[in-house]
Amino acid sequence: MGSAPSKDDDKRPTVEQPTPPAAAAAEQEDDEPDEWDKRIFSTGCAEENEKLTDCYYEKKDWRQCKEEMEMFKQCWKMQGNDKRTDSKDV
């Protein structure tokens, strides 16, 4: 059988659990663009990239994301990014 709460139970101080430093840091980091985000934004094709990655996330098959891939490729070329990512013979 359980015991009934005593009057002293109401007088106990409550202790809030502190937020772990790692969790607090993670919350702050989520608001700031990381290096990957900065690189994607600098291409001018962040929106197309997001649609492409969302498609793959939902369908788990790149072959079902041909339209999104084509839009990303067109944006990539239109922004001149194909020139900066060309392979160069060393």
UniProtKB/TrEMBL annotation:
The keyword Disulfide bond applies. Residues 45-77 form the CHCH domain. Transmembrane segments: none annotated. It comes from the Eukaryota. Residues 1-14 have a biased composition (Basic and acidic residues). Residues 1-36 are annotated as: Disordered. Keywords: Disulfide bond. InterPro entries: CHCH, Coa4-like. Pfam families: CHCH. The keyword Disulfide bond applies. This is CHCH domain-containing protein. It comes from Podospora bellae-mahoneyi. The lineage of its organism: Eukaryota, Fungi, Dikarya, Ascomycota, Pezizomycotina.
